[in-house]
Amino acid sequence: MNTMTDAPVLIVKRTFDASPARVFDAWLTHEQFQSWIGPEGVTCEVPVFEPRVGGRYRIVMKMSDGGTLPVVGVFKTLDRPKGFSMTWKWESGEHDSLVTVSLRDLGGKTELTLRHDGLQTADNCNAHERGWNGTLNKLGRLLAGALA
Amino acid sequence: MNQLDQTFQALADPTRRAILARLALGSATVGELAAPFDVSMPAVSRHLKVLEDAALIENQREGKHRRCSLKPQALKDAYDHLDRYARFWTGSFDRLDAFLKQTPEKKP
């Protein structure tokens, strides 16, 4: 595994209308995880799912062009219902990244913070790059937030 | 080291990020860039060299001074790289939200 350097870091937050235990179980239960993981329009199968420390998972994304993009990783920490962490690597890529999910109880709701560290290198996802109308005003956000 | 790695390595320093944030507002001379930082001119020059090597900035001679400006492409590439992951996770969260709403919590 490569060392996790201080940049870049991706942080995504979302509040869900459910308890932390319920959100935790949606991640760490095989059938539940498989039913929602992956962006809209990308079907994912999860042929390997071992939710314990040291256990592996494998997610196979089926792209709209017919190709598949498998992700593999290992669960590093599990602390129900506070959160968990897992490594994340494109099966054909070289580098591990680390996904850390923290769940905060907001009294019936849950604030989820996903931190994705070590996104250091290009990967075969480039082949599936979608169009992007980026603008420089996002630079401020990148510098102030994602890389802080 | 590929271009993206070089970009991220250049971005992995707070002084260099501050220099880029300043240049996002418009071009500046080396002296203007150095002014807010408590570092020597040679140290600033080294940071600028790293940013130039990563194709994040370019500079032109302007009389006795050098004027630096941002080159957006490498930053856009770095942003796109992160954005692919961001889309994966935000898209997944939309579906997780729908999943949680479809399967209401059992009240004890």
Structure description:
The complex is a heterodimer of chains A (148) and B (108). With 148 residues, chain A is an alpha+beta fold. Chain A has a single domain, classed as START domain (Alpha-D-Glucose-1,6-Bisphosphate, Chain A, domain 4, 2-Layer Sandwich). Helix content of chain A is 18%, strand content 40%. Chain A has a 7-stranded antiparallel β-sheet. In chain A, strand 5 and strand 6 form a beta hairpin. Chain A is globular. Chain A starts with 8 loop residues before the first strand and ends with a helix. Chain B has 108 residues and is an alpha+beta fold. Chain B has one domain: Arc Repressor Mutant, subunit A (Orthogonal Bundle), CATH 1.10.10. Chain B has 5 helices and 3 strands, in the order H-H-E-H-H-E-E-H. A 3-stranded antiparallel β-sheet of chain B has the order 1-3-2. In chain B, strand 2 and strand 3 form a beta hairpin. In chain B, helix 1 runs antiparallel to helix 4 and helix 1 packs across helix 5. At the A-B interface, strand 1, helix 1, helix 2, strand 7 and helix 3 of A face helix 1, helix 2 and helix 5 of B.
Give the secondary structure arrangement, pairings included.
The complex is a heterodimer of chains A (148) and B (108).
Chain A: E1 9-16, H1 20-28, H2 30-36, E2 43-49, E3 56-62, E4 68-79, E5 83-90, E6 97-105, E7 110-117, H3 137-146
Antiparallel strand pairs in A: 1-7, 2-3, 3-4, 4-5, 5-6, 6-7
Chain B: H1 3-11, H2 14-24, E1 28-29, H3 30-34, H4 41-53, E2 57-62, E3 65-70, H5 72-102
Antiparallel strand pairs in B: 1-3, 2-3
Question: Main attributes?
Answer:
heterodimer, A: 148 residues, alpha+beta, Alpha-D-Glucose-1,6-Bisphosphate, Chain A, domain 4, seven-stranded antiparallel β-sheet, 3 helices, globular, disordered N terminus, B: 108 residues, Arc Repressor Mutant, subunit A, three-stranded antiparallel β-sheet, 5 helices
